[in-house]
Design a protein that fits this description.
Layout (H helix, E strand, L loop, with lengths): L1 H16 L1 H28 L2 H8 L13 E13 L7 E6 L7 E5 L3 E8 L8 E3 L23 E6 L5 E6 L4 H6 L4 E6 L8 E10 L14 H5 L7 E4 L5 E5 L4 E8 L8 E3 L4 E6 L2 E8 L10 E7 L8 E6 L6 E8 L30 E9 L11 E5 L10 E3 L5 E7 L5 E5 L5 E5 L2 E2 L8 E4 L4 E6 L5 E7 L2 H5 L3 E6 L1
Parallel strand pairs: 1-4, 3-8, 9-12, 11-18, 19-22, 21-29
Antiparallel strand pairs: 1-2, 4-6, 5-7, 7-8, 9-10, 12-16, 13-17, 14-15, 14-16, 17-18, 19-20, 22-27, 23-26, 23-28, 24-25, 24-27, 28-29
The structure holds CU-O-CU linkage (C2O) and copper (II) ion.
Length: 490
């Protein structure tokens, strides 16, 4: 007892002896803290919404002056047949009798006029995914237009504002109509395209088929709804089981990939072939990066720049998917012939893509919580008694919100479920600024971002396109079961 007290006294007197030192140390710490926090204040001044808007200025145009050239085409959606498996006719719904539908190509500045006719047994519309169209051309029934009835026509006309890889698909009973084969691509070319030896589009799709090679006609099954939507058992690229691109050694290829699947997510890469990603969701990246590390969720596009090695004659490069446990072969490049000189030019990047460093310090303007619930008062009906909700609402019930036009806006997707949700916002491009609260800097814009189970993803945008735009999960079964909301830009 006594001993212990003595020890304590000793300690006390030691502390007393060190008081001057402690005072100095405290003073240093306090001064340091003041300096630290004031320099942080200086950063805070830089990290302002206004500063982010000025950093964004020039990243993409607000509007485009049409060049006067009108690209006019007729397009009909109808029932038909295609041959996916040798010797089998598969019944599909298609645009102009092919799956994928037409590869529509316009030059930046051209106006597209699409005379569309619905010959389907159902209502439909066309949505141009990723294209900043005038709101009335966005193709969303009940939001931007009335559904087009069987036998009726509608003219879609607009001047795309951005060059890049886009696609189009119905926005009525989308999970059924896309699965049956209704989708096509819209390529908006700029001057860079001609520089490549070849400019190719690969539309990746998966189908759920029956043993007799027909589209399995139960859509939005309880299984699909409770899980990650309808994953198929047949994979096609450009409607083929074995798509092959023939190239010569030395060629430089622009390859545009689109995921038109209802729900399947891919992690695509080439075996033994280096490729750089030059564009994501249509828009050029700020810095190229390796192909093979970015998921291709439903709705996403990735453009890659590939140089075929000079000594590659006779080689085969396989495009494989590694998202799931098993590697899946999707398509391949076959090299043959005399080597050609490789076109030399810089990667077509967009140096104006903002970094938005520190953007995750800005308050979140709007949170969207993603979840599922049992439908009340219903048994196991077509929707399996499940609905997918955003902020506890299932569309057509939704939580309205307004983004401030031309200002810096932020939103958070909080996935409260154990399922995948590739979230797609119409009419705008955004940048991911944080995942699970950790700042990230992706050197590109997107229009669709995959949110993993229980993850939160923060994004920022400066909306330049006014109107009412939907914001939904691109797993089409989830959207069909309510996971859709709408945001106004004004
Ligand atoms: Cu491809 Cu509403 O989307
Ligand atoms: Cu979803």
């Amino acid at each position: 007892m006594k001993n212990k007290n003595a020890k304590q006294n000793m300690k006390f007197s030691k502390i007393q002896k060190h008081i001057p030192v402690i005072i100095i140390a405290c003073a240093v710490l306090i001064t340091g803290a003041i300096l630290f926090f004031s320099s942080d204040d200086v950063d805070k001044v830089k990290v302002s919404r206004e500063a982010f808007v000025s950093e964004f200025t020039g990243a993409y145009v607000e509007d485009i002056e049409p060049n006067g050239n009108i690209v006019e085409m007729d397009m009909t959606a109808s029932e038909g047949e295609v041959e996916i498996f040798d010797g089998y006719k598969t019944k599909v719904w298609s645009y102009n009798d092919t799956v994928p539908g037409p590869e529509v190509r316009v030059k930046l500045g051209d106006t597209l006029r699409l005379n569309f006719t619905n010959d389907l047994p159902q209502e439909t519309t066309i949505h141009f995914h990723g294209v900043r169209v005038p709101n009335a051309m966005d193709g969303v029934p009940g939001v931007t237009q009335d559904p087009i009835k069987p036998g009726e026509s509608f003219v879609y006309e607009f001047t795309p504002k951005d060059a890049g890889t886009f696609w189009f698909h119905p926005h009525v009973r989308t999970s059924e109509q896309v699965e049956r084969g209704l989708f096509g691509t819209l390529i908006v070319e700029d001057d860079v395209d001609q520089k490549y030896s070849q400019d190719i589009v690969w539309v990746i799709d998966d189908w759920r088929m029956t043993e007799d090679r027909q589209v399995y006609e139960e859509f939005n099954t309880p299984m699909d709804l409770m899980h990650d939507g309808r994953w198929g058992n047949v994979m096609t690229v450009n409607g083929k089981l074995n798509e092959v691109l023939d190239v010569k050694p030395g060629e430089r290829i622009r390859l545009r990939m689109v995921n038109a699947s209802n729900a399947r997510i891919y992690m695509p890469s080439f075996k033994n072939l280096n490729a750089k990603i030059i564009a994501v969701d249509g828009m050029y990246v700020k810095e190229v990066f390796d192909f093979g590390e970015l998921e291709l969720s439903p709705g996403n596009r990735i453009d890659i720049d590939i140089t075929i090695p000079q000594d590659a004659d006779g080689q085969v490069f396989e495009l494989v998917d590694n998202f799931g446990r098993e590697e899946i072969k999707l398509a391949r490049i076959e090299v043959a012939g005399q080597a050609v000189a490789t076109p030399e030019f810089n990667f077509p990047v967009n140096s104006e893509v903002p970094d938005w460093t520190g953007a995750s310090d800005i308050e979140i303007d709007k949170e969207y919580r993603l979840n599922a619930r049992r439908k009340t008062g219903e048994g196991m009906g077509m929707m399996g008694g499940i609905e997918w909700t955003i902020n506890d609402k299932a569309y057509p019930d939704y939580d309205p919100y307004t983004f401030k036009y031309a200002e810096f806006n932020t939103m958070r997707f909080t996935n409260e479920s154990v399922r995948l949700h590739p979230m797609h916002l119409h009419g705008q491009f955004f940048k991911v600024i944080a995942r699970d609260g950790v700042p990230v800097s992706e050197p590109y814009f997107r229009d669709t971002v995959l949110v993993y189970p229980n993850q939160s993803v923060d994004v920022a945008l400066v909306p330049l396109d006014k109107g009412l735009w939907v914001n939904h999960c691109h797993i089409l079964e989830h959207a069909a079961a309510g996971m859709l909301t709408a945001v106004e830009v004004k």
